[in-house]
UniProtKB/TrEMBL annotation, chain A:
This is Cytochrome o ubiquinol oxidase subunit 1. The chain crosses the membrane at residues 31-58, 79-101, 121-144, 164-187, 207-231, 243-273, 293-321, 333-354, 360-379, 400-420, 432-458, 470-492, 512-536, 603-621, 627-645. It comes from the Bacteria. It is found in: Cell membrane. Residues 59-577 form the Cytochrome oxidase subunit I profile domain. One of its GO terms (molecular function) is cytochrome-c oxidase activity. Belongs to the heme-copper respiratory oxidase family. Keywords: Cell membrane, Copper, Electron transport, Heme, Iron, Membrane, Metal-binding, Respiratory chain, Transmembrane, Transmembrane helix, Transport. InterPro entries: Cyt_c_oxase-like_su1_dom, Cyt_c_oxase-like_su1_sf, Cyt_C_Oxase_1, Cyt_c_Oxase_su1_BS.
From TrEMBL, chain B:
It comes from the Bacteria. PANTHER family: CYTOCHROME BO(3) UBIQUINOL OXIDASE SUBUNIT 3, CYTOCHROME C OXIDASE SUBUNIT III. Keywords: Cell membrane, Membrane, Transmembrane, Transmembrane helix. PROSITE patterns: COX3 (PS50253). Belongs to the cytochrome c oxidase subunit 3 family. Cytochrome bo(3) ubiquinol terminal oxidase is the component of the aerobic respiratory chain of E.coli that predominates when cells are grown at high aeration. Has proton pump activity across the membrane in addition to electron transfer, pumping 2 protons/electron. GO terms for cellular component: plasma membrane. One of its GO terms (biological process) is aerobic electron transport chain. The lineage of its organism: Bacteria, Pseudomonadati, Pseudomonadota, Gammaproteobacteria, Oceanospirillales. It is a multi-pass membrane protein. This is Cytochrome bo(3) ubiquinol oxidase subunit 3.
Length: 701, 214
């Protein structure tokens, strides 16, 4: 390579293309893996081209730019976060299916190379945590939390855009790594010394490093934004103990993000110094200490577990109350339990490495701390069950996910207590038992939570219900698929099969592996059901219209406005007198009222900052990965100039006239009056247009 | 105009630290969130430094036969840097008081410029220190201990650099827009960062320099 090309392209060469090695090496294994990798890269390229063609064909570039990409509206940013999450979810599920397929036929070999398998489990884990789970829950909190506290937007709308831009950049980087390979093979945790330059000189670890760093920065900013919003922008009268439980869990998650993300920034930052500037933080020689990395990573990693699980706890709390037609049981205890979990989550990180040589006393202390978390979690489970007790339960789609969650999550919790015992952990650590355990927490916990939240709040966001038939099919496929795919892994773990094995030599594993493989196919079917559900719902959107805004006889503020809500959310900021504020209003016959007077509303103005920071962030990360220093410096300068220039701007808000607010609001009220109120038993039929009968006429509180 | 930010109007939700007071009512009420948000960011940043301090301490033994603190550090230079930074905190305090109590910009600008000069002087001495460490073979690639040093101390320096750039940007904003609400809250937030960096430096001076030379 000449000097000029290496100046421009760094170390990026033709061999980064996924089919390159196939051209040199004609063995069957190389060709199979090359074809799979090329197929994946082709899907990425085709997907991008299809998106560009579609937007151009519809002539929607301007609409996309001014109504979505530069919009500071928390609702639109939330939806865009969820779109990223769904795209990445699809990719990571397909990767999981490939891994299951490999292991189903992995006795003495299989069809994937060890390198390819390593990339698969690394991207699967990295994507599921940082580019599926985090954007999904960030998106849902973004959409719902300001509505629940009676706010018009987050405290820092432009910072919210920047968070979105950074997450999008990280996700894009992992997608680019399919086309310009390879990705890291170091697992989502990226332990050194394996990820150090001396053992792993290629671009793979650097892709992983910068994708994760972008996501971490995004989540830190998001956490600050959520916490400040909840502390400062609640409607008058909404004291902390009148906040909906979902908002409470959003607050705890935000606090965990603020304090839990910096350790990962430090860990990846120091690893980057090792790899780029020849530092010796975690190397095996010259006084480096790799245990520091493990401690730093899990000082992030364990709070992260609760960042992921607390929002679903809040979501399920809303869903159990709504679909049992009852006030949540033990509101204050649930709040206290949430806070206890948030605090305890910082005291248990060492249980991720019981076997790494510290003394038995230290292990015992962390084992006990770990088991303690079971107590507030158990309190929550009982509270949810007691909420359902003597309620009029409607088995809607969100409720199916919620009940599946309770059953399976308790099982996962039990295996967690088993793993928390250091002596047992010595036997099963690093085995498939662990994989089964944390998937048992994350799929029924996090993913079911996100999917039930999608079914629950989708009508609020888009003005029509998601179709239920395909919703049930998806939910049952998820529950059954999960059980088939992961319960065998408990057995395999106890039989001694290590995690991340590309092949094995023990015939007894095979039946369990095949069962797990079938489970993976059922999960793939669940993904298809979700897509069909979305398609069918959009097709039938007129029949399932819920413009009036309250399809589930909801309890909290967000159900008291139109679906979809106007960009300013509330024509007049509501005043709050109790928990379940909207249910109280309906109870008193005070729902759907016109205010005495309307005021002008000041909203944040559109801004391109999120797009700019997203693009420069991606350019810097890509440049760092491939050693294109000009790109890193250029993008860095653009970022600096953009941030400084933004400081000089003064028109950061725009005003919506009172008369326009009045017109919109009165149009909606008129529609609500024209909507026929329905009984809860009819809520899954096309007669549900978003207005329930008043509580007096038949519903239990 | 309903801003939707009703709680900020209540007196008890004021952010900690220097508030501008009733003379600046509008800035106080509409920008409360900005300053509070910055405090929260500082907490997050403090975790960063806290972890790097902890990592540094665990790496003290990792000199791998290379030069250690006694060979590399000069107490005089570190002491000069400490004094410069402490004085700059005082001058920023004077700038904050000028912002709160004075109508005219002149005094505020002078104090900010003095602070900027002190910040740059600090950076000069710090770089000079690094240079002399490099000359004595104290480069980060030499040992784990030196890696830990160069991941902690220059990060503080980078923060100071960022704060200086921000200060210049704020002076520029003041020249263009005058002393309006965004500039005022900008100065309030920069003040928090500046004092924060001072506190972090006291940690570095005590733990890294005094601890290393004792």
């Amino acid at each position: 390579m000449s000097d000029a090309t290496s100046l421009i392209f760094g170390r990026l060469g033709w061999d980064a293309l996924p089919f390159w090695s196939m051209l040199d090496d004609h063995s069957a294994m190389s060709i199979i893996n090359g074809v799979i990798a090329t197929g994946a890269a082709g899907m990425v390229v085709l997907g991008i081209l299809a998106a560009i063609v579609l937007v151009t064909w519809l002539g929607k570039w301007k609409y996309l730019w001014s109504k979505w990409l530069t919009s500071p509206d928390h609702k639109k940013i939330g939806i865009m976060f969820i779109v990223i999450a769904l795209v990445m979810l699809s990719r990571a599920i397909i990767e999981a299916v490939f891994m299951r397929a490999q292991q189903a036929v992995g006795l003495d070999g299989g069809f994937l190379t060890a390198e390819h398998f390593g990339e698969l489990f690394t991207t699967h884990g990295t994507i599921m945590i940082f580019f599926m789970a985090m954007p999904f829950l960030t998106g849902i909190i973004n959409y719902v939390m300001p509505l629940q506290i009676g706010a018009r937007d987050l405290s820092f709308p432009v910072m919210n855009q920047i968070s979105l831009g950074l997450t999008a950049a990280g996700a894009a980087l992992t997608m680019i790594s399919l086309v310009l390979a390879p990705f890291s093979t170091g697992g989502w945790t990226g332990y050194p010394p394996f990820t150090e330059l001396s053992y792993n000189p290629g671009a793979g670890v650097d892709y992983w490093l910068w994708a994760v760093t972008l996501s971490t920065l995004s989540s830190t900013l998001t956490g600050i934004n959520f916490a400040v919003t909840i502390f400062k922008k609640r409607a008058p009268g909404m004291t902390l103990f009148r906040m909906p439980l979902f908002t409470w869990t959003a607050l705890c998650t935000a606090i965990l993000m603020i304090f839990g993300m910096p350790p990962l920034t430090v860990a990846t930052g120091l690893l980057a110094l090792d790899r780029y500037l020849d530092f010796h933080m975690f190397t095996t020689d010259l006084g480096g200490n790799m245990m520091n990395y493990v401690n730093l990573l899990w000082a992030f990693g364990h709070p992260e577990v609760y960042i992921l699980i607390l929002p679903p706890f809040g979501i399920f709390s809303e869903i159990f109350a709504t679909f049992s037609g009852k006030r949540i049981y033990g509101y204050k205890i649930l709040v206290i339990a949430t806070m206890c979990i948030a605090i305890l989550s910082f005291t248990v990180w060492l249980h991720h490495f019981f076997t790494m040589g510290q003394s038995a006393h230290i292990n015992a202390a962390f084992g006990i701390a770990t088991m303690l978390i079971g107590i507030p979690t158990g309190v929550k489970v009982y509270d949810w069950m007691l909420t359902m007790y003597r309620g009029r339960i409607r088995l809607s789609v969100p409720m199916v996910y919620a009940i599946g969650f309770i059953m399976l999550f308790v099982l996962g919790g039990m295996t967690g207590i088993i793993l928390a015992t250091p002596s047992v952990d010595y036997q099963v650590h690093n085995s498939l038992f662990l994989i089964a355990h944390f998937h048992n927490m994350l799929i029924p916990g996090l993913l079911f939570g996100m999917l039930s939240a999608t079914n629950f709040w989708f009508p609020k966001a888009f003005g029509f219900r998601l179709e239920e038939r395909w919703g049930y099919r998806a939910a049952f496929c998820w529950i059954i698929g999960f059980m088939l795919a992961f319960f065998p892994l408990y057995v395999l773990g106890l039989m001694g099969m290590p995690r991340r094995s590309v092949a094995y030599f023990e015939p007894q594993y095979v039946p369990w592996m095949i069962t797990a493989g079938i489970g993976a196919l059922v999960i793939l079917a669940a993904l298809l059901c979700l897509l069909i559900q979305l398609w069918v719902s959009i097709r039938d959107r007129h029949a399932n219209n819920v413009f009036a805004g309250d399809p589930w006889d909801g309890r909290t503020l967000e159900w008291g406005i139109s679906s979809p809500p106007p960009e300013y959310n509330f024509p007049v900021i509501p005043e709050i007198y109790s928990i379940d504020a909207f249910m109280t209003e309906k109870d008193r016959g005070q729902g759907w009222q016109a205010p005495d007077r309307y005021d002008d509303i000041e909203m944040p103005a559109n801004s391109a900052m999120g797009v700019i920071i997203g693009i420069t962030g991606l350019a810097m990360a890509f440049g760092l990965t491939w050693y294109m220093w000009w790109l890193v410096i250029g993008a860095g300068l653009v970022t600096l100039v953009a941030v400084i220039a933004r400081g000089f701007g003064r028109t950061t808000t725009r005003t919506i006239a009172a008369c326009e607010v009045q017109r919109t609001h009165e149009h909606w009220l008129e529609q609500v009056r024209l909507t026929h109120p329905i009984d809860r038993s009819l809520e899954q039929t096309t007669s549900n247009h978003g207005r329930p009968v008043p509580p007096i006429e038949g519903a239990v509180q | 105009m309903s801003s939707g930010n009703t709680r900020a109007l209540e007196g008890n939700s004021r952010h900690p630290g220097l508030n501008l007071g009733p003379a600046h009512a509008q800035e106080e009420d509409t920008r409360e969130e900005m300053v509070f948000g910055f405090w929260v960011f500082m907490m997050s940043d403090l975790i960063l430094f806290g972890l790097l301090f902890a990592t540094y301490v665990t790496m003290l033994g990792g000199t791998a036969g290379g030069p250690g603190p006694k060979e590399l550090f000069e107490l005089k230079s570190a002491f000069i840097q400490t004094m410069i930074l402490l004085v700059s905190s005082v001058t920023f305090g004077m700038a904050s008081l000028a912002l709160k109590y004075r109508e005219d910009k002149a005094r505020l600008v002078v104090w900010l410029l003095v602070t900027l000069a002190l910040g740059l002087a600090f950076l000069f001495f710090e770089l000079k220190d690094f240079h002399s460490m490099f000359d004595k073979g104290g480069v980060p690639s030499r040992s784990g201990y030196l890696s830990a040093f160069f991941s902690l101390v220059p990060l503080h320096g980078l923060h100071v650099t960022g704060a200086c750039i921000w200060l210049v940007a704020l002076l520029g904003q003041m020249a263009v827009h005058g002393l309006d609400a965004p500039v005022k809250t900008g100065i309030l937030r920069l003040a928090i960062l500046w004092h924060f960096l001072d506190i972090v430096w006291i940690g570095i001076f005590s733990l890294v320099y005094l601890g290393g030379l004792s």
